[in-house]
Amino acid sequence: MVSGNQTPVMEFIFLGFSGMPRAHVFLFFIFLAIYLVILTGNTTIVTLIQLDSRLHSPMYFFLSHLSCLDVCYSSVTVPKILANFVSQKPTISYNQCMAQMFFLMTFAGSECALLAVMAYDRYAAICQPLRYSHLMNSQVRVSLATFSWLWGFLNSSIHTTLATNLSFCGANQIDHIFCDVPPLLKIACSDTYVNEMVLHTATIFVGLSPFLLVVISYVYILSAILRIRSNTGRRKAFSTCTSHVVVVIIYFGMANLNYNRPSAGYSLEIDTLISTLYCIITPMLNPLIYSFRNKEVKNALWKALGLNSKEFTSPRKQ
């Protein structure tokens, strides 16, 4: 919003990669390659889950939603970053900036909630095996997935509504590579107290609360696994959780660096690196982690390609 004689800001300029203009062509192809890996990997996982009946379980149902979120999440930021690499001026219009921020926070918040839901699914499978089919019936898992998407939508709606009421007084240079709440608050000339309080509150409810639910779930899971007497049973139970644990550590770790680092003490280059890790590396790693660590996904892939999975998984006999 603009008041008095203030000049309305029609566009913002990203400063994220401004210090390395000679590397833009190289970075363009690096980002493009990573984006293609994100699209290919996550689309492949969704397709395999739809086609292979062995993957029609609650765990893979939630994994398909995670892959959809990763595609949407990266598609909000990466195409614009690629366009700015080949343009004379890395800009984004005001309306596009607000839209980018809205969808970015929607998908990021939804992924936080979905990771907590996936932890609950593992808890139900390992700690309540006799009731698992009831606890995770089709109606329950659809409701939990829907809640995850709505959770992110509600969070982003509040932040975007508050952001549209900010004044920028002609300041339009953003120390970032995409539109997000913290960098916009830094250049706003109007009072940002409410925005900052809402951001801190959202960090607790949208970020910290799902993470704590994940931790609590795995405390119960670990306790149940340690009570399993056979080593084979313990290894099998651990194997169903390993991929999810790795994804949780990477995602929440990157999110914490992106949103909770000090406002001072980091250079623009470090900020850019952290933002890059947050917006493209995590979505790229998720399908790789689940495909390499999960025998069922690999077997489904070999089947889809018309290959015999035993040729790749069975040890050689002397």
List keywords for this structure.
Rhopdopsin 7-helix transmembrane proteins; 3-stranded mixed beta sheet; 3% strand; 318 residues; globular; mainly alpha; disordered C terminus; 11 helices; 73% helix; 3 strands
Q: Nutshell version of this structure?
A:
The chain is an all-alpha fold.
Note down, in words, how this protein is organized.
The protein is built from eleven helices and three strands. It has 318 residues and is mainly alpha-helical. A three-stranded mixed beta sheet has the order 2-1-3. The radius of gyration is 22 Å and the shape is globular. The model is unreliable at 311-318 (pLDDT under 50).
Please outline the helices and strands.
Blueprint: E1 11-14, H1 24-51, H2 58-85, E2 91-93, H3 94-127, H4 132-135, H5 138-163, E3 173-174, H6 181-187, H7 193-226, H8 231-260, H9 268-293, H10 295-304, H11 310-313
Parallel strand pairs: 1-3
Antiparallel strand pairs: 1-2
